[in-house]
Structure prediction request, 395 residues.
Amino acid sequence: MSTRESHQDTQPSPPLPAQPLRLKRVVAGEKAKHKIRGLEILVVTALVALIGSGAAVASVNAKSAGEESAAATSTAPAEVLNLGYFGNITHGPALVGVEQGLFAKDLGATTLETQVFTTGPATIEALNAGAIDAAYLGPNPALNSFVQSGGESIRIIAGVASGGAQFVVRPGISEVEGLRGKTIATPQLGGTQDVALRKWLADRGLETNTSGGGDVTITPTTNAQTLRLFQDGKIDGAWVAEPWTSRLVLQAGAKVLVNEADLWDKGEFSTTVLAVNKSFLAEHPETVEALLRGHVDSVKWLDDNPREATTVINAALKVAIGQPLEDDVIARSISELKFTSDPLAATFPTLLDHGVSAGVSKPADLNGLFDLTLLNKVLKAAGGEPVTAAGLGTQ
Prediction:
């Protein structure tokens, strides 16, 4: 698996000129006050909202033939782009794009507004409802939204990161049988790491269910709570993404039982993708293309500036989540990740199968999930290689 070294002895380059942006932090359980009234995101009941979102998605995104025709003839840049992302290292290009002004530079006259989320299902709920226009999130919530809406909700327009997810446990647990009767946390029911844990346990003969029963109790828990509960001895492990894996290892004495990269061919699996509301893509392709230019610029910046990455990401985290992280946590996190614009589309049928096995997805045709046309246009202009939709959309 590709890695990067992170150094802390160089200060970051001065940020590029950026237009003013308004940053709004949204935490699961709070009501989003932008564009939608009464959107309340509940952590424990996220799967219910997720599975039942088909009707809501259809009501928000389904357009009459006349509306579709109007959108096709009126594709001016949007006045505002509402972008969602997490304060996670796996969302590094989003953090860098905001902090370094790369998105604002490429968006030009379009105002950038951002909202920081803590879970994928909560993010997709906001994306489906129109509270945000585009989002960095895990692949499984994106898959579930696409499936439940019959392909009418979102499109994945780029990859973000591969790797950076691990199953960490107490030092006394060294084998699968040692997990029987234990309590393990994941960020949210139906999320990417939740699905990965349930699939891994099932393959080894340990039963779980979405109500928290079975041989292993899986408890959906916010990442910050997971760290505290592990430190207090109230949970026995967690399947999480960076920087929380590194925080549990370096700050709470956890050990890595499973590195998810070891479960995939060539160690490549999608941890984070960039998705956009389908209607927004149809109505504002120029704005989406500009967002993708900023995204590609951010990925390249991370590749070209490994020495500065820790400082810049930490500054972005301070804005996004209210506090920076220790340098060793960021360094370990970055070493476990590969930032890439390739969404690794060929792995998504397997991801869907895992979700079906875990009981949080249903079988479906994924054709149309990806629209990589604008990404490949941006990559070509930047001298990069095109990426494939693997037969699951346009490229």
In short: The chain has 16 helices and 16 strands. The chain has a mean pLDDT of 84. The longest helix spans residues 285-304. The radius of gyration is 20 Å.
